[in-house]
């Protein structure tokens, strides 16, 4: 394939990835890795680098479109970012040591987990438990549900902090946003209501990815020729997706459809990774 | 104070993110067109990973001599810096609100990112 054809192929694929990523809320990097590795036979290290770039592009693009943070909503992501950024550094530094065939297997597993998570019932039961550490760190807050202002209390701060470190490692290791892991940790460990955990996660994804990306960049994982069509395609795809989403009546069916597609891609990645090993 | 946080900081963050994404895409696309204009018919060979280290000073040097890959890489650096701007603006809002605990926590996050830049360079 010539470079020009390769570039336009990625541009179209990344546009689709951005579109699907923003409509499902799964993020842009989602099908960038299978697209590059399965269809275009790009080396997994370059694919992972390009994916991290697409994660940063979508997270900043989404943030630019609708920032509704208030000061109290900065505290939770900032506190947890101490842990995710440290994790991302560990993951990015050790990415080179993981056997290349295992990376697609791990990514496949995370993709399946994330698509299942995107279909799951949302937790909306604010905890009544009081955490002293949470109070000292001023992590309890409120969120708006329509015209209602609902207070929530955060629990298991230490456990959540450790889970976030793990999410950071996965992000740095596999070049993904690991937004589903972050939401899962906030939801099940810290009992944070869904509205808060998703907005907190989208704040954190970009910063976590940036911490890993500065290492990837210097280690030559982010190839400029691949990064340009990936970043451009994903940003414009995400913009289209955000517009389309307001016009669609049943996003739930769409989510299910995409979850199936993503899971199939993931199974293919796991299969290829395991086959390469034997 | 609260009014300032809710409106101004959000507008500032939204604006910074838009500007960051916009500028980085401009540099990336400009560099990409420059790169492809001479190599469009070359075969795409990315199936093997070739280790090639990259340093920030080298990108700036290449940028001054209008190297297309350096222009792209500068765009990538801008893109990576964009979410960090969000942390910097959050720091500003914590300082303005005299929230010393979170001023320290936010500085810690920025130091970790700085540490990441250094560890990527030296490892």
Automatic annotation (TrEMBL), chain A:
Localisation: Cell membrane
Transmembrane segments: 32-57, 78-96, 102-119, 161-181, 201-218, 225-246, 252-274
The entry's keywords: Cell membrane, Membrane, Transmembrane, Transmembrane helix, Transport
InterPro entries to which the protein is assigned, alphabetical: TM_pro_TauE-like, TSUP
Pfam family, one: TauE
Keyword Magnesium recorded: no
Membrane topology label: Multi-pass membrane protein
Example of a GO cellular component annotation carried by this entry: plasma membrane
Family: Belongs to the 4-toluene sulfonate uptake permease (TSUP) (TC 2.A.102) family.
Name of the protein described by the UniProt record: Probable membrane transporter protein
Organism expressing this protein natively: Mucilaginibacter gossypii
TrEMBL record, chain B:
Transmembrane segments: 12-36, 70-94, 101-120
Keywords: Membrane, Transmembrane, Transmembrane helix
InterPro entries per UniProt: DUF1634
Pfam families assigned to the protein according to its UniProt record, in alphabetical order: DUF1634
Superkingdom of origin: Bacteria
Protein name: DUF1634 domain-containing protein
Naturally occurring in which organism (per UniProt): Mucilaginibacter rubeus
């Amino acid at each position: 394939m010539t470079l020009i054809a390769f570039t336009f192929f990625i541009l179209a694929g990344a546009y689709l990835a951005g579109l699907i990523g923003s409509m499902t809320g799964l993020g842009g990097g989602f099908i960038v890795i299978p697209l590059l590795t399965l269809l275009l036979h790009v080396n997994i290290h370059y694919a992972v680098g390009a994916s991290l770039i697409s994660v940063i592009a979508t997270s900043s693009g989404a943030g630019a479109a609708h920032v509704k943070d208030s000061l109290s909503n900065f505290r939770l992501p900032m506190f947890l970012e101490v842990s995710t950024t440290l994790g991302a550094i560990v993951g990015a530094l050790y990415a080179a040591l993981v056997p290349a065939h295992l990376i697609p297997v791990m990514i496949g597993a995370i993709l399946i987990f994330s698509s299942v998570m995107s279909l799951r019932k949302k937790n909306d039961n604010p905890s009544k438990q009081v955490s002293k550490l949470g109070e000292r760190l001023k992590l309890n807050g409120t969120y708006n549900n329509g015209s209602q202002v609902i207070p929530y209390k955060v629990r298991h701060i230490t456990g959540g902090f450790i889970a976030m470190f793990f999410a950071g490692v996965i992000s740095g290791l596999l070049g993904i946003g690991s937004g589903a892991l972050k939401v899962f940790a906030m939801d099940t460990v810290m009992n944070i209501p869904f509205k808060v955990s998703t907005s907190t996660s989208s704040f954190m994804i970009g910063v976590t990815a940036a911490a890993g990306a500065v290492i990837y960049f210097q280690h030559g994982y982010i190839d400029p020729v691949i990064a340009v069509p990936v970043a451009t395609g994903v940003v414009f795809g995400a913009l289209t997706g955000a517009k389309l989403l307001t016009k669609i009546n049943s996003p739930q069916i769409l989510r299910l459809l995409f979850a199936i597609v993503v899971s199939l891609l993931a199974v293919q990645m796991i299969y290829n990774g395991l086959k390469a090993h034997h | 104070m609260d009014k300032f946080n809710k409106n101004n900081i959000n507008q500032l963050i939204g604006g910074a993110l838009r500007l960051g994404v916009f500028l980085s895409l401009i540099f990336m696309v400009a560099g990409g067109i420059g790169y492809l204009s001479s190599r469009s018919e070359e075969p795409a060979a990315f199936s093997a990973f070739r280790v090639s280290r990259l340093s920030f000073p080298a990108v700036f040097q290449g940028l001054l001599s209008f190297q297309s890959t350096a222009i792209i890489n500068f765009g990538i650096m801008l893109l990576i810096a964009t979410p960090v701007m969000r942390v910097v603006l959050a720091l500003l809002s914590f300082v303005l609100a005299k929230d010393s605990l979170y001023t320290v926590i936010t500085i810690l996050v920025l130091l970790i990112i700085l540490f990441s830049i250094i560890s990527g360079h030296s490892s």
